[in-house]
Every structure is written in structure tokens, then in C-alpha cells.
């Protein structure tokens, strides 16, 4: 009985850890996309000035 309860608790913890890692990847990807888009807009503006 205790083993089953402990196993469920560990599965829950692993699920939470996986969700945190997934959220971290999404945040990093969003930041990277923001930087890439801003660099594209900046380059476009610079090319119009020249």
C-alpha cells in the first residue's frame, strides 16, 4: 500500500519537473525568436537608410 502511494507521488513529481522544463524551453525559444525578429527589423531599417 505504501509503495503504491509513494510511486504515485514520484510520478507526480516527475510530471511537475517535466512541465517546468517544457515551460523553460518555451520561454527560451520565445526570447530567441524575439531577438531574431528584432535583428531582422533592425537590419531592414539600416538597409533603408543607406
Which helices and strands occur, and which strands form pairs?
Blueprint: H1 2-49
Keywords: Archaeal flagellum, Membrane, Transmembrane, Transmembrane helix
Subcellular location: Archaeal flagellum
Protein name: Flagellin
Rg calculated over all Cα atoms: 22 Å
Let me know the number of strands. 0
N-C termini distance: 74 Å
User: Helical proportion?
Assistant: over 70%
Order of helices and strands: H
Output mean pLDDT.
88
Give the overall shape, derived from the CA principal axes: rod-shaped
Query: What proportion strand?
Result: under 5%
Largest sheet report:
none
Tally of alpha and pi helices: 1
Residue ranges: pLDDT <50 for 5 or more in a row? none
> Helix/strand-derived class?
mainly alpha
Describe what this molecule looks like in 3D:
The chain has a domain at 24-50. The chain starts with a helix and ends with a helix. The mean pLDDT is 88. The chain contains one helix and no strands. It has one helix spanning 2-49. The chain crosses the membrane at residues 12-37. Belongs to the archaeal flagellin family. Its main location: other. This is Flagellin.
Task: Looking at this protein, list some descriptive labels.
single chain, mainly alpha, 1 helix, rod-shaped
At a glance:
This protein is 96% helix and 0% strand. It is mainly α and 50 residues long. Pfam families: Flagellin_arch-type.
Amino acid at each position: 500500500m505504501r509503495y503504491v502511494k509513494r510511486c504515485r507521488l514520484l510520478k507526480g513529481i516527475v510530471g511537475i519537473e517535466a512541465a517546468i522544463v517544457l515551460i523553460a524551453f518555451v520561454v527560451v525559444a520565445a526570447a530567441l525568436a524575439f531577438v531574431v525578429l528584432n535583428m531582422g527589423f533592425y537590419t531592414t531599417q539600416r538597409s533603408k537608410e543607406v
